[in-house]
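Support request, please re-run this one:
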Amino acid sequence: MGTNRYAFERYLNVRTARDPSFSPDGRRLSFITDITGVAEVWTVPVTPASAAPSWPHQITFRGERSDSATYAPAAPMLLVAGDAGGAERTQLYLVSDDGVTFSPLTDQPDVIHTFGSWSPDGHRLCYASNRRDARHFDLYEQTIDGTPPRLIYQDDSTNGALHYAPDGRRLLFSRVESNTRNALFLLDLNSGTAQRLTPETTDGPAHHLAPQWATDGSGCYLLSNRGREFLSLAWLDVTSGAMTYLTDDQWDDEEVALSHDGTRLALLTNVEGYSRLALFDISRGWSERQPLPVPELPAGVMHEVTWSRDGARLAFTYEAADTNADVWVWDADERVLWQATQSATGGSPCNTLGLPAAAWPTEPPQMCASVAQEVCPTDGYYPLAQRAAYGTQEC
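Re-run finished. Output below.
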């Protein structure tokens, strides 16, 4: 039987889903997909171990690209960021998760607004913007009741809002110092005083990325390569500014996510170009951490790891050489994995998206026997949900 050839246009129509965010009650999951040809925000019910993903519900109809969507911590509402006409001058919108209410939070099409986070009570949010001077990004805070935004930090530099402290009275923010270095600061929202947390350095790279607050507000977990070659998990004490490395792999740690109650930590590491997910119970501290079971998927790449508010489930975007990006959910308590979205491949069978053998720098990462068998049947339309090992299995 000859090999079928497919028009290049089919591959241009491959769709993706990304950027998951759990609703406060954990019953719905928002994500961004270009299923319509434009990246819009959709939601889908959280249906554990379903045979096939549920049909999603579209909630934005801007006809313009959405960059991110993040649920409020205590209401069925999302903060959506998106630009118009590909201008990359991002505006912010408040959207109810049924799509009925859509309100612009910013309306300055010549200005960039970069979302930071929701406050713990969900009444405020923070972002960075260059509205004062196109060359510099200041920090703003805004309530969701329509009150005009408040300038909370001004400096002639590139600043980015990160996360509120658990008490809601302080805010972590980052300042870009070069393409290989950034600094972290802690802003007191009452006094407006900013405390530098990371030292000034001109010797080598010094990234300080993805800080995650501990529930007691004493410090945060983050990724850094200050003084070393690879990005590694570290602990930063916000009182003293002392940073302690917690891992020492010869690979970059790429993402860290802490559950809302601070008892579970997810760590993504890039191992030879593929993602390795590790989950830990850190309820008794990092030094007494306990490993938790992880889902088994074919070798691929994970992004945008996020916990449900109760810490029971983990959502992430997963993609591989023969698989377009989709959102998956892992129930860490029940040890059940399922595919929350299933994006179209543009009519291209998955066995035409295979990985060339020459692309492996070494032996491929080991996969569970139940996964590593036939990837695509002869017709080429084997659902990815059936490729994964549901739950954990011994290899």
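Residues 291-395 form one domain. The radius of gyration is 22 Å.
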